[in-house]
Structure formats: C-alpha cells, structure tokens
Design goal:
The chain is built from 4 helices and 6 strands; from the N terminus they run βββααββααβ. The chain has 143 residues and is of the alpha+beta class. It folds into 2 domains: 35 residues, no CATH class; 94 residues, GMP Synthetase, Chain A, domain 3. This is Osmotically inducible protein OsmC.
C-alpha cells in the first residue's frame, strides 16, 4: 500500500529579497508566506524547519499512540514538540538534529513501559526514518 500526499511552494525573487508561499494538498495550509528573514533572521512567519517540526511531532505522537495501543494502553493526551536544529556545516546548511519532547497522560501506565514505547515510537515513526540527523527524545509521563 502506498499513500501519496503533496505539499507545494512557490518562490519569487532572489534568496534574500524574494518571498514565497507554501501550501498543502488538503488546504489546511494555504499560501502561507515564507522568506529568508522568516527563516534566518527571526521575522515572524513560517519556515521549512517549523513545518518539519510539526510534521515530525504529529507523526511521532501517532506512532506512540499505536505502540501504546499494542500494549493495551490508551493515552488521554500526548503532547509533543519537535525542536529542529538548522546549522551551518561544511558546504552550506543542514538539519543536524531534532529533539522530540513529549508529555503523555496515560491511565495505568508505568514509566518503564512508557519509556520503552516512547523510544520505539522515536525509532519507528516514518518521519524519523526520513532524516539524516540525530534525533533525541525526552519523554515524561504525567500523573
């Protein structure tokens, strides 16, 4: 089985003075502006790294839910943030690391089982498999 989804971008102009928009097939993200300043200079707005972070956090959370379900557990809530590091390396820029920070509320779960599931999700998430970057995780079980 194969699933195909699309994202698209339109760019106009040079690197520093140009601007672009990014959209998704579903239309949830539609013509959202991005630019050099938004990516590298802290100007408010979207950029590729935050979109990658959102994609990774959502994929990871779903993978964790699946692994917990296989263990007979259902999370009331899984909240994940993916911190994407874009660094200058030899030959240009690269995404060198992604740190996943997840907090989950799971009735009747013990921390050892949760940590095991959290690490399996980090390794097994399809988006994790995409990156040639160090992926780290901190996972906390609530209450």
């Amino acid at each position: 089985m194969s699933i195909h989804k699309t994202g698209s971008a339109v760019w106009q102009g040079g690197l520093k003075d140009g601007k672009g928009t990014v959209s998704t097939q579903s239309g949830v993200i539609q013509d959202v502006p991005y630019s050099f300043a938004k990516r590298f200079e802290g100007e408010a707005g979207s950029n590729p790294e935050e979109l990658i972070g959102a994609a990774h956090a959502s994929c990871y959370s779903m993978a964790l839910s699946m692994i917990l379900g296989e263990a007979g557990l259902t999370a009331e809530r899984i909240a994940t943030e993916a911190k994407v590091t874009l660094a200058e390396v030899e030959g240009g820029f690269a995404i060198t690391a992604i740190h996943l920070d997840t907090v989950a509320k799971i009735p009747d779960a013990d921390d050892a089982a949760f940590q095991d599931a959290a690490n399996k999700a980090k390794e097994g998430c399809p988006v994790s498999k995409l990156f040639n970057a160090e992926i780290t995780l901190s996972a906390k079980l609530e209450g």
